[in-house]
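Task: fold both queries, return tokens.
Query 1:
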Amino acid sequence: MTRIAALSDVHGNVTALEAVLADVAREKPDHIVVAGDFVLNGPEPAAAVDALRSAAGAGTAVIAGNTDVAVADFDYAAAFPWMTDGVPDAIAAAAEWAHDALGDERVEWLATAVETGAPGNHVELVHRARPSADQIKDGAFQRADGLWVYRKLPARELWGQVMRSTYDHAEPGVLFLDRMNRDNNLNYCETIEATNPCSEQPLPPYGCCCLGSINLVSFVKHPFTNEAEFDYARFARVVETAVRMLDNVLEVTAWPLEQQYKEAMAKRRVGLGFTGLGDALAPMWSARARPSRRSRGTTRATSCSSTCSATRYRRSCSRTARSAARRSIGTRGERSRSNRRSRRVRRAPARRATSTPTAEPTWCSAGRRRRCQPCRARRSC
């Protein structure tokens, strides 16, 4: 999987830029992208451009932003198209000061970055599979590391295509896999390789996607009144039940692969979230609370998330402790046979009646089950 580190909004702060680039370099991503707003409103525009030029020479993709257009050639209409009445004097003064601080050579480099991206700044589209003969004829080649370079694109063009596609179709998504692995509670024993298609549950190899969702609207009490409130206590109880339910799903699932079964039993990964947040907040915005409804909505959304998270952790820990105490280690076949035996309902074989049944069945001593006189088979009350 290709890892891309993306930075933005340098704004002439060369100290922060160099520190971030150094941290990113230690992570050794496949590509580094610095996008937009290089010098405006910053203390050291010249030093920032010099640092960006060095990074671009080392292979970093440098993509200019709208404020760089204003600094490079004072085209405020292109830089700030939403400001139809002209830009404020403060922005114009900041752009002119940065332009003068850069000098002619740096301004020329910045203008080139605005038009086409930094000189020599291209992204390689690579894959391990060998291209077709026509693609090789068109310029595809194999690198020293064995990967094939299918095409080279200007970084600005590729980034623009990603942004347009994300806006129009919500794809492709940008996934920070290194951050996921650092924040993963199980990072000491696994490495996340991918996610499910919607990316709500990152997974290790052979990991399962056992997800559930709770409708928040069901927990609003006295909706559309001044007494409207959210029932956090009942919500926490439902979260506990839902965690247990998802854990039971792992037990009854017919796993296609042995590796999937072992992964599920070893970590018992489940994912529980909620839906209907907006529909739950709307009935709680009473008329008298209207001036502060945004802050109250944010507070309630945070409370729902924290309640759900804390309850999930607490229930998962107690469930795991009980399961580990009673679970024996064995092969999958032995475990499956044991589960089938434990769930099997044993019924006495029915014998053909040899006499006429009595009119009324007799009850067992506990009074909960009845027995048919001819065959003596248990039947539910």
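Query 1 returned. Query 2:
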Amino acid sequence: MQAAGTDPSTSITHGPSRWCRRSIRLSTSGSNETSYDDIRATGGLNEYWYSRFGNLTVDAAVADSARHTYMLEMEEPNFGTAANGDTVTITGHADFSVHLKSATGAGTFTHTASDGTVRGTGTWSATDLIDYQSYGCGIVLGTPLPDNFCGGKVKLRVTLTTPQGQLPATLTVICIIGPNPPDSAFHEGKRSEGAMLNVPEVVNFNHTAGGDNVIIQTG
């Protein structure tokens, strides 16, 4: 990814391309620090989510989502595409509060051209929550899930860090969990989970292209 007007042969080589192995805070009440490596060693985040968050009580997820806090997890890659065929791969984690319109978190991105050439990689950090549209919780396409596993569209204000400097951007992640996903969350009958990344005056990955994520209600 390069700034507008720069030499198109210039690319970003900063890594890593995987979610950085940092300590992430996962707690239902009180404080508990668990490292990424510890979680991976015990079956990965999917197993950890169920063991730590599968029994929370969640009430009227859609109607009162404005007073809740959530955790967005993208352990696996989430993808978006631009009009020119370029793709972006996003991983990471973010905690957000709808009432306070606040968000913190971080992850990685990789920009790949339509011919497979890696144009750039770097990291992103969340600075604010722009909007959260909840699709509800506890079910996906008729299959029951823990009550606090939720879906929706999360739009975050983020800062991208690259060797060429920092860039403001908007990161949008869609998770198709819940009884109320809108028709717009599906494209030609397919689930439109994934990520979109808009970097003004640089590139706009404005279509989701698949991915694996979950939004967990934490409070």
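Both queries returned. Flag for query 2: The two ends are 37 Å apart (CA to CA).
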